[in-house]
Amino acid sequence: MSHRTVLISGAGIAGLTLAYWLRRHGWAPTVVERAPDLRAGGYKIDIRGAALDVVARMGLLDEIRARTTDVRGGHVVDATGRRVASMDGDTFGGRVHGDAEIHRGDLADLLRAATDVEYRFGDAIAALDETDTGVTVTYDSGDVRTYDLVVGADGLHSRTRRLAFGPEERYVRPMGYRIAVYSVPNHLDLDREELTYVGAGRTALTYSTARDDGAKAMFLYATPDASRRTPEELRRELAEEYRGEGWEVPTLLAGLAATPDFYADAMAQVHMDAWSRGRVALVGDAAYAASPASGQGTSLALVGAYVLAGELAAAPDHRTGFAAYERAMRPYVAANQRLGPANVKRMVLRSKGQVRLSMAMLSVLGRLPGHDRMMARVVAPIHRAATAIALRTY
């Protein structure tokens, strides 16, 4: 392919991985990120199945394993704090066959350190003007540059997708839930443990990981309102939704106003008939978000970026490369997106009756014959989806 310059919008997992592989294939990527630097910290994420092959081919697997969260146990608790059910960390997190769990910020740091490309932090795409020979990009800063291709890796609320494909409402499908996560003091003195409390329509959890003196709090709750709100509005909504809940919820909410890394958003998926238009393409959540409930967002980003870069490098032109990328990824994306709606119904129970039944079942699960086989059946759909693609060597 004659054109070799590409602008990647977004320095998340998908954007950094795409930059790495395009650079390795001889391209000249530029990564633009509206934040002043990489987002540090973040919640724990999983790398499964085919995504493990991607990071292994990047030479990063050993470093990832050295930085794993090392969560050793997971427990479901009731409103009094009684541990209703306990499992090892991998079973609790649905990890099998060497799957790795790592903080999102740690993975981003490893990817950036491995990637020698131009970065434009504190800027973003304001406008795109496509011609027969390239895409002229006007930045928020006023700078104007022309690239052979542009790829949006800028997440669920992708500006690149809006500029090239139209309004977000055409593609983003809310699932009826919201997620919130932020850092909290480790007031329970957890040692690489995770505690999950389940109420009617509301789940709350807290966990500690290796190499982190603090803890994280996460909340998943049912809500029909998927509108975008300011961080302050989302803080108020979260406090109101969990008002009166038991267990450690009041303590976890006490630090909500002061936490420096509050994140909240609607749980949603992205469904599109095409992931490219002309010289602009999308990758990761911008193209096919599966929602945090799938547990596969990071793996989709890693695999999608690897395949997109490889198909562009192997193709005679961008149209052929984009089409091959879609053909390779569509079945894998579909398999992983199916996980989200099924998983979230187990994560957030809708009624008090469901909660009571679930707690009763969990309390005896460990004593039932065939317990291990039952847990294996629960994990099996995740593993099938995670391995639902055969990676080419480009």
UniProtKB/TrEMBL annotation:
Q: Which residues form a coiled coil?
A: none
GO molecular function terms attached to this record: FAD binding
What InterPro entries does the database record attribute to this sequence? FAD-bd (IPR002938), FAD/NAD-bd_sf (IPR036188), FAD_aromatic-hydroxylase (IPR051704)
Short name of one Pfam family for this protein? FAD_binding_3
> Entry's SUPFAM superfamilies?
FAD/NAD(P)-binding domain
Domain FAD-binding, by residue range, is: 5-330
Q: Which domain of life is it from?
A: Bacteria
Name of the featured protein: FAD-dependent oxidoreductase
